[in-house]
Design goal:
Blueprint: H1 3-14, H2 19-27, E1 30-34, E2 38-43, H3 46-53, H4 57-66, E3 73-78, H5 84-91, H6 103-107, H7 113-118, H8 148-159, E4 168-172, H9 178-192, E5 198-202, H10 203-215, H11 221-226, E6 230-234, H12 243-258, E7 262-267, H13 279-285, E8 289-293, H14 298-311, H15 318-327, H16 332-349, H17 355-365, H18 375-385, H19 390-394, H20 400-417, H21 421-428, H22 432-448, H23 450-464
Parallel strand pairs: 2-3, 4-7, 4-8, 5-6, 6-7
Antiparallel strand pairs: 1-2
Helix pairs in contact: 1-2, 1-4, 2-14, 8-9, 10-12, 14-15, 14-16, 15-17, 16-17, 18-20, 20-21, 20-22, 21-22, 22-23
Bound molecules: adenosine-5'-diphosphate and magnesium ion.
Length: 465
């Protein structure tokens, strides 16, 4: 970073220039050329340039003067992505934009690539394939009343892995920051001690790797996991009722515990409510620390919006921040999604975010359902997905491979069209209680069984695709 700019940033921070978001504008920019009278200031994007040309023009001059350079003329340029050095510097910064790819996609390692070849988890700390996404850090995690306990426990684990809170079990609803927090533990530990063998895996990946190893008769699957210092397992609720993989997980888990290796687990519900867990695994999981993350309160939501837009180089009007925080209440992922859409929309068009835009994006972001969708289409598409004749699917056959698709079709008609149970019953020549039972069953399956969840979401995509 240019020395003069460093001095300006220090001044900006000393002056606590309108809070953290503004000083971030400064931190994300840099002087790339300076001859005492003229300076070229390189900024992240068009917003930052606008800010420096308008609202921040005066503070910029004042801070330069304080740093010993009064009356400097600025040319503001937008950083080009091709600048090698700058790019890597940027890559090291937390990236909240998520506009190019969703975090899941960035983090997802090639599907079980490391397992398929040898059946061994090669994703250790220090190596890129430990499953950790560098984007998830404590530094960009906003702490509020909803998550402060979970955050503190995660930090305690970083201080003394394997000692306190082992296993650490973090649970809470979708999009509330579980993956972010448990990944942040992994990243912090990898930084603190690069020799640690760390693996982040979802329970689905663990299960698939196990099945693969079995199928290919690769030995040493469990040994490789037992060499880990830190095992982070995400989305434990999807542990399928498969006895063998649970057994394997149980033994891996026990072995790690006995060696005082840290195990961290996330789930959408506490261990006692994961119905597919065997009793002994549940008991073991309950022996450590289980902490929940709640929905973020209004203030936390405001803080998250400000911080995230600030990191994208944008200062949103308070009115917009409050509007978003009021309207997206229970899911930070959704909050982030709408915010990113708003920022991307404005960036592409070179305009400033307004409350009207925020409103229109928020209204549009709720999946717009084609008006033509009806029960018959859902039945046909579900039947086609399962390669069944729709007539047979709606008929009397109660064998499992027909009954389950039928129940899924009923479930989709209920959730997508909000049709009444008796009306759905008529489509399938069944009474309303049988429909109700089917819908409840699929609802429960979606929570516990990732195959069904995947099937339902595939079909749902086809309905709107
Ligand atoms: P979960 O695993 O609980 O479904 P994630 O950890 O994937 O949720 O969080 C969803 C998104 O919201 C992620 O992009 C994450 O970075 C972000 N997020 C969640 N909680 C916070 C927080 N407290 N501060 C900053 N970002 C957060
Ligand atoms: Mg998650």
């Amino acid at each position: 970073m240019h020395q003069v700019w460093q001095a300006v940033i220090e001044q900006a921070e000393l002056a606590k220039l309108s809070g953290p978001t503004i000083s971030l504008f400064f931190r994300k920019s840099d002087i790339i050329d300076f001859d005492g009278a003229h300076a070229r200031l390189e900024v992240l994007n068009i917003f930052a340039r606008r800010q420096f040309e308008t609202k921040l023009a005066k503070p910029l001059q004042q801070l330069m003067a304080k740093a010993g350079y009064p009356g400097v003329k600025f040319t503001i340029v937008i950083r080009s992505g091709k600048n090698g050095g700058k790019k890597s510097e940027r890559a090291a910064q937390p990236d909240f934009s998520g506009r190019i790819a969703s975090p899941k996609r960035i983090s997802a390692p090639p599907k079980n690539a490391s397992f398929v070849s040898s059946g061994t988890p090669k994703r250790y700390g220090g190596e890129p394939n430990n499953g950790l996404n560098p984007r998830y850090r404590f530094a960009n995690f906003i702490v509020g009343g909803n998550n402060d306990l979970a955050h503190a426990a995660c930090q305690a684990v970083v201080e003394a892995p394997g000692e306190r809170y082992n296993p650490l079990f973090i649970y809470g609803g979708v999009g509330l920051g579980k993956t972010h927090l448990i990944q942040a533990i992994g990243n912090a530990l990898a930084e603190k001690d690069p020799s640690l063998k760390i693996l982040y895996t979802t329970i689905e990946e663990f299960y698939n790797a196990f099945v693969n190893a079995m199928r290919r008769k690769v030995s040493g699957f469990s040994d490789d996991y037992r060499k880990l210092d830190v095992l982070i397992v995400d989305d434990m609720q999807y542990i399928a009722g498969k006895e063998k993989s649970q057994e394997e997980f149980f033994h891996t888990f026990n072995a790690l515990q006995q060696m005082n290796k840290q195990v961290i687990i996330s789930s959408d519900r506490p261990p006692r409510e994961i119905s597919t867990l065997t009793d002994r695994l549940r008991t073991r999981l309950e022996m450590g620390m289980a902490i929940d993350i709640q929905m973020p309160d209004y203030e936390t939501r405001c803080a998250i919006i400000s911080a995230k837009s600030g990191l994208s180089g944008v200062t949103l009007d308070t009115q917009i921040v409050e509007y978003l925080a009021e309207n997206i209440r229970n899911n930070i992922r959704e909050l982030e999604g709408v915010l990113n859409q708003l920022l991307a929309y404005c960036e592409v068009r070179g305009i400033e975010p307004t409350i009207e835009l925020a409103k229109s994006i928020l209204t549009q972001s709720h999946v717009v359902k084609p008006k033509t969708l009806n029960a018959k289409q859902i039945i046909d598409k579900t039947a086609r997905y399962f390669k069944l004749d729709p007539k047979i699917m709606c008929g009397k056959d109660r064998s499992h491979n027909i009954a389950e698709p039928r129940q899924i079709a009923m479930y989709l008609i209920r959730t997508e069209l909000s049709m009444s149970f008796p009306k759905i019953g008529r489509e399938f020549s069944r009474d309303h209680s049988s429909v109700m039972h089917s819908v409840e069953k699929i609802d429960e399956c979606i929570k516990n069984d990732f195959y069904i969840r995947q099937q339902v979401s595939d079909i749902r995509e086809k309905l709107y695709g």
